[in-house]
C-alpha cells in the first residue's frame, strides 16, 4: 500500500501543475486580518510557507535606508520562545530550510520543509511575528553581515553599482531612489529604536499574506493557523507612501568611473505600476525587445552589428510606477554613442512600424511556457500566487494572465512604446574606465 | 503568554527526541526505460504524460579535460553546435525555437559536454529534428564562430572584475596543477584567439560520438513512438569508437601549506578558499561525507556559517563544499570578508576546521544533519528537467536509482563513529591549499602567516 501511495506522490506534480486553476487555491482570512492561500499538492512529501509582508525600501526615508532589508535579517535572530539561533536550529533539525528576500516593495520569508514538520514551522513563524526580541549584540553582528552583503555585491558586479546609480537619478523624490540594501552611512547608524518602531508598524498579521503549497490539507492549515497565528493582535494599518514621482521633463545622464573591461550601460524609462492597464503590453514589449536570439535588440546589436556582447531589458511588477530598463555591455573598442544610437534605432522602428503578427505570437507563446514552468514546483506555485496576490491585489489574476497576454494587440504594443519610450522620459547611465589625464 | 514558556521548552525537547519519526514518508524514483542503440548511444526514457512539457538532457564525453594544447576548445565547440547544421541555418534555429518558446542549450564542463532542452510536447516533431542535427551534424559556420570568439574574448576580459567568478579556477590550478582537472574550461585569451573552425571540426570528430554518450528524455510522450524517433534521429549517428576518457593519475600535492595570493588592486574585500584534495563521485562514503559536510559548512547553522557570520558578522556567508568528478575532486571552505578583517576571518575558518577534527559531531547534531539532508532531498527531483538531468548523471557517474530509493535508509545508518572516521579520512587537516583574492599590498603580510606564498595578478587567469 505504501509503495502505491508513494508512486502517486511521484506522478502527481506535473498533473497538478498542468491543471492548476484558480479554484485549486483555497483562501481564508483570520480575524486579525492575516490572509492565507493554500494549494494542496501531494506530489512530493514536502511543503513550503511563503510569508509576504507588504513592506520594502519604499516604506523607508533617508536616515533609515536599508532598514527593511536589515529587518529581514533580524527576524532570524531570536524571539520569545525561540531565542537567538534557535529559529534556524529548530527548523533545520526538523528537516526544513529557509531564506528571505527584500525588494523595493515587499519582504518575503520562505520556508521549505517536510510536510510532517508543518506545525513546527507555524510555531516558529508565529513566535517571531508575535514576539520578536531584538538583542543589541545581535544587531551589531548582523550589521557586519549586511555591510558584507553590500560590499560583496558591489565588488563582484558593476551591474549592481549601475542599478543603484540609475535609480538614484531616475527617481528624484520617490523612495525607489535608494538601494534596497541602503546607503552605507545609514547602515552604520540604524538604532535599536529604529528597528523596534519598524517592527511595530509593519510586522502585523494584517500586513501579511501567507501562501502554503504542498502535501498538507487546507483543513489542517486552517487548524494550525487558528492555533498559532490567530492570537496575534492586529495593528493599525501602516502609513501610506504618498510620494508620487513627478513627471520627468527631459533626459538625464551620468557617467561613473570604475575599472571595467568595457563600458556598462543602462537606459531607463518611467513606466506605471503593476495594476495599470498597460502592464501586459509593456511586459510583451520587453520580450519583443530582448527575449531570445531572434529578439529585436539581440539580433541587431549582438548578432548583426556586434556592438555589444550582452543586452537585455528589465521590467517587473511594482506597487508604484517603476522603470523599464534596457541594459547593454559594450564590445571592446565600440563607443557607447554608437551603441546608444543602435538601441534607439530599434526602438524607433517599433514606434513607427510596430511589431509583426508573428512576433506577437512568439512572445505570447513564450509567456505561456514560462507560466507552465513557473508552476511546475510547489515553490514556484507559492511564489507566484503570493506575488500576484500582493502586486495585483488578487491571486486569481495569475490564472487570468495567459488570457490577458493573449488579448494584447500589435497596435497596443506600439502605443505603449510611443507613450513611454520617449526622449524626455529617459535616464542614461554608463560605467566606464576613468580616462587617463 | 509568559506561562507558555515552560510548555514550549518541553515541546522543543520532544521535537528533538522524535526527530527520526517525522520522516516516515520518503521519495521513490519513478520507472523509466534504459537501452542502447546499436551505435552504443544510451537512451533513458521516462514518461510523465500528465504534463504538456518535455525535458531532454544529453551528455557527451567531450569536456575540457580533452582540451590538451588548446584551452577553451571544448567550450567553443559546444557553443558552436548551435551555429547552424546541415539543414538549418543559425537564424532558422533561433527563430524556430524562440517562436515555440522552446529552449536548447549546449555547454561544456570539465568532464563532459552537454545539451539541455525544454519545450511543449506538441512541438516535439518541430524541435527534435533540430536538436538531433545540433548534436550530430553541426555546420560550424565560420562567420558565426568569429562572432562567438569575439564575444567570448570580451567575457574573458571581464573575469578580472569578479573574484567569485575566478577563485574556483585559481584553486583548481593549485590543487591539480598541470593535470587535466586543472584545465580552465573557458580557456585563455591567446588560445581562444588561435582556435580555428578546422580545430573545432577536428575536436568534434574526435570527441562527439555516440558510444559513450547518453540522452535522457522525461515528459509527455509515447514510449514506443519515442523509441522509433530515437532510432530515426540517432540510429545513423556514426562517430568514431570512443576511447575511455583518458584522465591521468592525480599528481601528488606538496606536503606543506601553500598560499596563492591573487592581487586585485581595487578590491575592498578578500575572497578566499581554504581546502585540499577531495573525493570522486563514486566514493563509497559519498553520502556520509555529504551529511558531515552539511553539518560543517553546508547549511545556515553549519559550524562555518555560525562562527563566521552569525557569531562574528565577518561575512555575509561561509560554506564548504566537495566538488566531485569521476576520478577525483576537491574540498574547500569558501567565504569573503572586508580587507581589514581578512586575518580574523582566515583564522576563524581554520579554527573551525580544527574544531571539526577535534570534537567531531554530537549525536544530536548528527540527527539534525540527517534530518536536514533527508528533508531537503525530494524537491531536487520535482520537475521533468531535474529528472532528465539526474538520469544522465546516473549514467555518467555510474550510480542507479537505488541511490534515490535507499537514500533515507543510508542516511539513517550514519553513526557518530562513522562520522569520526569520515572526518579523519576525507576532511583535510594539514597541508592546506589556500587562495586569497584581494588587495595584495594590504594582505600580503597576512598571507605569509598561512604558508608559502606565491603571488599573481587576477588577470593571469586569462593569460
UniProtKB/TrEMBL annotation, chain A:
Residue span(s) of domain Peptidase M16 N-terminal: 43-151
Family: Belongs to the peptidase M16 family.
Domain (Peptidase M16 C-terminal) ranges: 189-366
Signal peptide: 1-22
Species per Swiss-Prot/TrEMBL record: Robertkochia marina
A GO molecular-function descriptor: metal ion binding
Cross-referenced SUPFAM superfamilies: LuxS/MPP-like metallohydrolase (SSF63411)
Domain of life of the organism encoding this protein: Bacteria
Entry protein name: Insulinase family protein
Keywords, comma-separated and alphabetical: Signal
Keyword Aminoacyl-tRNA synthetase among record annotations: no
Pfam families: Peptidase_M16, Peptidase_M16_C
Keyword Signal attached: yes
InterPro entries: Metalloenz_LuxS/M16, MPP/UQCRC_Complex, Pept_M16_N, Peptidase_M16_C
From TrEMBL, chain B:
Membrane spanning residue stretches: none
Domain Peptidase M16 C-terminal: 194-371
Matching InterPro entries: Metalloenz_LuxS/M16, MPP/UQCRC_Complex, Pept_M16_N, Peptidase_M16_C
GO terms of molecular function: metal ion binding
Superkingdom in the source lineage: Bacteria
UniProt signal peptide: none
Pfam families reported in the protein's UniProt record: Peptidase_M16, Peptidase_M16_C
SUPFAM superfamilies assigned: LuxS/MPP-like metallohydrolase
Residue ranges constituting the Peptidase M16 N-terminal domain according to the UniProt record: 55-182
Protein name per UniProt: Insulinase family protein
Originating species: Robertkochia marina
Amino acid at each position: 500500500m505504501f509503495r502505491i501511495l508513494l508512486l502517486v506522490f511521484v506522478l502527481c506534480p506535473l498533473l497538478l501543475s498542468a491543471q492548476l486553476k484558480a479554484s485549486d487555491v483555497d483562501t481564508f482570512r483570520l480575524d486579525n486580518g492575516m490572509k492565507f492561500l493554500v494549494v494542496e499538492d501531494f506530489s512530493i512529501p514536502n511543503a513550503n510557507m511563503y510569508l509576504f509582508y507588504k513592506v520594502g525600501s519604499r516604506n523607508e526615508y533617508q536616515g533609515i535606508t536599508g532598514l527593511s532589508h536589515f529587518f529581514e535579517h533580524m527576524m532570524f535572530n531570536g524571539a520569545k520562545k525561540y531565542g537567538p539561533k534557535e529559529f534556524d536550529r529548530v527548523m533545520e533539525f526538523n528537516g526544513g530550510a529557509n531564506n528571505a528576500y527584500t525588494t523595493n516593495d515587499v519582504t518575503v520569508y520562505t520556508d521549505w520543509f517536510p510536510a510532517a514538520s508543518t506545525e513546527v514551522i507555524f510555531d516558529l513563524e508565529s513566535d517571531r511575528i508575535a514576539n520578536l526580541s531584538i538583542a543589541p549584540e545581535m544587531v551589531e553582528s548582523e550589521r557586519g553581515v549586511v555591510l558584507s552583503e553590500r560590499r560583496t555585491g558591489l565588488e563582484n558586479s558593476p551591474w549592481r553599482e549601475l542599478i543603484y546609480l540609475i535609480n538614484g537619478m531616475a527617481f528624484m523624490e520617490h523612495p525607489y531612489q535608494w538601494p534596497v540594501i541602503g546607503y552605507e552611512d545609514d547602515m552604520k547608524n540604524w538604532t535599536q529604536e529604529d528597528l523596534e518602531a519598524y517592527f511595530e508598524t509593519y510586522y502585523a498579521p494584517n500586513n501579511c499574506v501567507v501562501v502554503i503549497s504542498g502535501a498538507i490539507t487546507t483543513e489542517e492549515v486552517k487548524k494550525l493557523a487558528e492555533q498559532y497565528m490567530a492570537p496575534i493582535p492586529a495593528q493599525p494599518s501602516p502609513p501610506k507612501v504618498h510620494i508620487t514621482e513627478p513627471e520627468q521633463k527631459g533626459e538625464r545622464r551620468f557617467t561613473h568611473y570604475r575599472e571595467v573591461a568595457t563600458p556598462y550601460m543602462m537606459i531607463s524609462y518611467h513606466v506605471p505600476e503593476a495594476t495599470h492597464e498597460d502592464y501586459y503590453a509593456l511586459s510583451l514589449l520587453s520580450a519583443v525587445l530582448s527575449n531570445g536570439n531572434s529578439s529585436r535588440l539581440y539580433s541587431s546589436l549582438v548578432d548583426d552589428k556586434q556592438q555589444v556582447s550582452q543586452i537585455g531589458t528589465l521590467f517587473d511588477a511594482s506597487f508604484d510606477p517603476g522603470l523599464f530598463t534596457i541594459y547593454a555591455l559594450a564590445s571592446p573598442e565600440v563607443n557607447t554613442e554608437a551603441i546608444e544610437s543602435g538601441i534607439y534605432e530599434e526602438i524607433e522602428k517599433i514606434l513607427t512600424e510596430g511589431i509583426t503578427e508573428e512576433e506577437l505570437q512568439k512572445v505570447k507563446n513564450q509567456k505561456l511556457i514560462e507560466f507552465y514552468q513557473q508552476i511546475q514546483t510547489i515553490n514556484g506555485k507559492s511564489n507566484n500566487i503570493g506575488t500576484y496576490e500582493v502586486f495585483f491585489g488578487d491571486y486569481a489574476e495569475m490564472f487570468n494572465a495567459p488570457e490577458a497576454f493573449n488579448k494584447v494587440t500589435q497596435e497596443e504594443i506600439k502605443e505603449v512604446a510611443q507613450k513611454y519610450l520617449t526622449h524626455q522620459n529617459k535616464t542614461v547611465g554608463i560605467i566606464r574606465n576613468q580616462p587617463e589625464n | 503568554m509568559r506561562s507558555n514558556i515552560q510548555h514550549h521548552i518541553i515541546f522543543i525537547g520532544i521535537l528533538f527526541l522524535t526527530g527520526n519519526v517525522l520522516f516516515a514518508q520518503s521519495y521513490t524514483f519513478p520507472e523509466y526505460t534504459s537501452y542502447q542503440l546499436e551505435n552504443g548511444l544510451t537512451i533513458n526514457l521516462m514518461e510523465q504524460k500528465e504534463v504538456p512539457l518535455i525535458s531532454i538532457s544529453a551528455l557527451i564525453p567531450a569536456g575540457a579535460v580533452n582540451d590538451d594544447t588548446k584551452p577553451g576548445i571544448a567550450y567553443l565547440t559546444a557553443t558552436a553546435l548551435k551555429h547552424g547544421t546541415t539543414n538549418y541555418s543559425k537564424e532558422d534555429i533561433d527563430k524556430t525555437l524562440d517562436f515555440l518558446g522552446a529552449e536548447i542549450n549546449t555547454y561544456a564542463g570539465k568532464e563532459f559536454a552537454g545539451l539541455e532542452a525544454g519545450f511543449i510536447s506538441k512541438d516535439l516533431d518541430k524541435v527534435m529534428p533540430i536538436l538531433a542535427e545540433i548534436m550530430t551534424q553541426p555546420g560550424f559556420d565560420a562567420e558565426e564562430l568569429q562572432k562567438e570568439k569575439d564575444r567570448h574574448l570580451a567575457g574573458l576580459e571581464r573575469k578580472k572584475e569578479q573574484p567569485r567568478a575566478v577563485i574556483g579556477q585559481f584553486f583548481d590550478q593549485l590543487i591539480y596543477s598541470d593535470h587535466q582537472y586543472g584545465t580552465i574550461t573557458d580557456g585563455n585569451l591567446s588560445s581562444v584567439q588561435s582556435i580555428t573552425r578546422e580545430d573545432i571540426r577536428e575536436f568534434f570528430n574526435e570527441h562527439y560520438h555516440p558510444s559513450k554518450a547518453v540522452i535522457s528524455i522525461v515528459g509527455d510522450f509515447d514510449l514506443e513512438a519515442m523509441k522509433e524517433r530515437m532510432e530515426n534521429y540517432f540510429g545513423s549517428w556514426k562517430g568514431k569508437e570512443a576511447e575511455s576518457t583518458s584522465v591521468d593519475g592525480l599528481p601528488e600535492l606538496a606536503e606543506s601549506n601553500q598560499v596563492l595570493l591573487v592581487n586585485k588592486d581595487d578590491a575592498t574585500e578578500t575572497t578566499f578558499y581554504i581546502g585540499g584534495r577531495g573525493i570522486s563521485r563514486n566514493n563509497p562514503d559519498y553520502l556520509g561525507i555529504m551529511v558531515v559536510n552539511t553539518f560543517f559548512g553546508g547549511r545556515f547553522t553549519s559550524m562555518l556559517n555560525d562562527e563566521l557570520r552569525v557569531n562574528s558578522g565577518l561575512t555575509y556567508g561561509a560554506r564548504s563544499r566537495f566538488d566531485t568528478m569521476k576520478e577525483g575532486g576537491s574540498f574547500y571552505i569558501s567565504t569573503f570578508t572586508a580587507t581589514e578583517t581578512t586575518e580574523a576571518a582566515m583564522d576563524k575558518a581554520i579554527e573551525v576546521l580544527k574544531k571539526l577534527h577535534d570534537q567531531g559531531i554530537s549525536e544530536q547534531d548528527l540527527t539534525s544533519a540527517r534530518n536536514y539532508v533527508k528533508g531537503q532531498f525530494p524537491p531536487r527531483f520535482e520537475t521533468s528537467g531535474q529528472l532528465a538531468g539526474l538520469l544522465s548523471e546516473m549514467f555518467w557517474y555510474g550510480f542507479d536509482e537505488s541511490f534515490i530509493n535507499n537514500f533515507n535508509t543510508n542516511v539513517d545508518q550514519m553513526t557518530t563513529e562513522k562520522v569520526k572516521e569520515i572526518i579523519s579520512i576525507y576532511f583535510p587537516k594539514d597541508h592546506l591549499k589556500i587562495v586569497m583574492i584581494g588587495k595584495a599590498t594590504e594582505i600580503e603580510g597576512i598571507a605569509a602567516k598561512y604558508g608559502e606564498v606565491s603571488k599573481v595578478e587576477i588577470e593571469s587567469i586569462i593569460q
